[in-house]
Amino acid sequence: MRAAFARTSFVLALLLTAGASAEGLKLPDNLVDLRSSQGEAYLLEAHGLEAYFPISVAFETQRTQSYCGVASMVMVLNAIGAPAPTTPEFQPYTVFTQDNVLNEKTDAIRSRDAILHRGMTVDQLGGILSLYPVTVEVHHAETGGVDEFRKLASETLASKNRFVIVNFQRKTLGEVIGGHISPLAAYDEKSDRFLILDVARYKYPPVWVKTADLFDAMNTPDSDNDNKTRGYVLISSQASAGDALKP
After folding, report:
1. At residue 240, what are phi and psi to the nearest 5 degrees?
2. What is the number of alpha carbons within 13 Å of residue 26 lying toward its C-beta?
3. Reading across the β-sheet that carries 134-140, which strands appear in turn?
4. Beta bridge partners of 179
5. Which H or E element spans position 173?
6. Is the pTM above the cut of 0.70?
7. Would you name the residues annotated as active-site residues?
């Protein structure tokens, strides 16, 4: 127990220190800041915690205000250990970055210019991830209920090498308006809350959100996606992965 507490405290400090100087926006009352005593308590009692350590160590702050999907993909691909492309600044090492995760092949799904100006939909997010050696499932909120989301997401977060990215409407959660994408990191069954590692760290810290509230925020129409509802993407490693997508 002591070792688990120390491990959790270390990664919590690692995750939060880099964003400590960002003032951010005021959180609505329905969200619990991970940095608060209550937020830390949720983390320490959470059972769906397998994804927390690898995804938090791979944390990315989105490079532009439209790159929430890009930063989320980079976090998951690095956390899952997918074979990464080379990048000049880190040679001879390989790692996914917000520059090299997009290329000519991903342009066929959503051009880099379009992402830069308008971001991406949950389907485009899943489509781009599917170009890499990972298994991807895209779920629109309208095709399943809150119970299905809770079951699938909590089971995923409690498993090794499996991750969840959510696409939701901030306004529904009481945050500053706009569609947004970020990974989940943990599930606390007792409070029935998921932990969102918000990639717009200059706006909001990691927060615990009630499952029903998060589902309602996903169950909103996206005008950039033929008014289909937003949703979530389940990502897992492949037993026999091929070569990574090359730029």
Report:
1. -125, 85
2. 2
3. 32-33, 207-210, 193-196, 179-188, 162-169, 231-237, 134-140
4. 169
5. helix 170-173
6. yes
7. 68, 180, 198
Angle at 99 (CA atoms; ends 98, 100), nearest 5 degrees: 100
β 134-140/231-237 pair status: antiparallel
Helices (H) and strands (E) in the chain, counts: 10, 9
User: For residue range 116-126, what is the model confidence (pLDDT) as tens digits?
Assistant: 999 999 999 99
Residue ranges of domains in the chain: 2-237
Residue among 29, 25, 42 at smallest CA distance from 201: 25
Whole-angstrom Cα distance, residue 22 to residue 152?
33
Q: Which amino acid, 123?
A: D
Bridge partner residues of 177 (DSSP): none
- Tokens (6 digits) for 156: 């995923």
Residues 6+ apart with CB under 8 A from 150: 192, 211, 215
CATH ID of 2-237, from 3.40.50.300, 3.30.70.920, 1.10.8.60, 3.90.70.30: 3.90.70.30
**Rg of the chain taking only CA atoms, in angstroms:** 17
- The DSSP secondary structure of 127-164, one letter per residue, reads HHHTTSSEEEEEEEGGGS-HHHHHHHHHHHHTSTTEEE
Instruction: Collect the ranges in the chain with pLDDT lower than 50.
Output: 1-7, 10-11, 13-14, 17-21, 240-247
Strands (E), the chain: 32-33, 134-140, 162-169, 179-188, 193-196, 207-210, 221-222, 228-229, 231-237
Determine the pLDDT at residue 240.
Answer: 31
